[in-house]
Write a structure and sequence with these properties.
By secondary structure, the protein is an all-alpha fold. It folds into three domains: 56 residues, no CATH class; 80 residues, Helix Hairpins, CATH 1.10.287; 99 residues, Cytochrome Bc1 Complex, Chain D, domain 2 (Orthogonal Bundle), CATH 1.10.760. It has ten helices and two strands.
């Protein structure tokens, strides 16, 4: 009985293939109908999620899909830890694996580009008409590895733990010992703010960070004798002190915090001994 049903399905599929081969399948109404239905389904899902989000959240408590309103962004905060949307977690974790400046290119451009090229080239390389999974071991294994890799990287990126504001905050005591300001509490506090405020995105300090946009290394910034007042003014408005500077202003941190960072920079005269 089962074999007869299979034979009937195969015969029906063969008739369908023969019919398509002879007469084709016009865009209208077949493809147009399918696209219209799927578009309506997608719009319906979006509208449904919006209604559920609005109906289950009163603006204060988090509903099924998150709070309706959130606190306004504070541009002066040093406590915010930026994280990507969930569908970029795999790339986020790749950046944690290839975290050195010389290898960041592999995580951001190299590996994703190579995999994308392989994906695009696959239909041109494997032109066999065989579609049974049991007879396509290479394609099946490759697909499974891709799915597992993406899943593991996404999960690892989602649960990755980070230090407050920056992964290098814990290095501040070592910086203080190497630079010789271990007894200077204000300089150490400035070092924490320096690490939390994203300065190492463009600057290098004792081997940490990355040099971008022509930003100078700050390991021996204090040896230049610029003074605390100069550092504060420069942090408040870099382009005012150094015309054309691409460095963003940090005036939102407040004068007290800016002074701490300035004291830290002036205490950084290069490793002792």
């Amino acid at each position: 009985m089962a074999s007869r049903r299979i034979e009937e399905r195969r015969a029906e599929h063969a008739r369908y293939k023969e019919d398509v081969k002879k007469r084709g399948k016009p865009f209208y109404p077949f493809a147009m109908f399918h696209d219209t239905v799927m578009s309506l389904v997608v719009v319906g899902v979006i509208v449904g999620l919006t209604v559920v989000w609005r109906a289950t959240s009163d603006g204060t408590d988090s509903g099924w899909l998150g709070p309706l309103y959130a606190e306004k962004a504070d541009p002066g905060t040093t406590q915010f830890i930026p994280r990507p949307d969930w569908y970029f977690y795999f790339l986020f974790y790749l950046l944690r694996i290839f975290k050195w400046p010389e290898s960041v290119f592999l995580a951001t451009v190299g590996i994703p580009t190579i995999l994308l090229i392989l994906l695009v080239a696959m239909p041109f390389v494997d032109v066999r008409r065989e579609r049974r999974l049991s007879r396509r071991p290479v394609a099946v294994v490759a697909s499974i590895l891709v799915v597992v890799s993406m899943g593991v990287l996404t999960w690892k990126g989602a649960v990755a733990k980070e230090s407050l504001g920056s992964e290098v905050v814990g290095e501040v005591p070592a910086w203080a010992a190497k630079q010789g300001f271990a007894d200077n509490a204000e300089a150490k506090a400035g070092g924490v703010l320096f690490a939390q405020s994203g300065c190492l995105t463009c600057h290098v300090y004792l081997g940490a960070g990355a040099s971008n946009l022509g930003a100078p290394e700050l390991t021996a910034e204090g040896a230049k004798g610029k003074g605390v007042d100069f550092q504060v003014k420069h942090l408040k408005c870099p382009s005012c002190v150094t015309p054309g500077s691409p460095m963003p202003p940090f005036a939102s941190l407040g004068d007290e915090n800016l002074k701490k960072i300035a004291v830290f920079l002036e205490a950084s005269k290069g490793p002792k001994g």
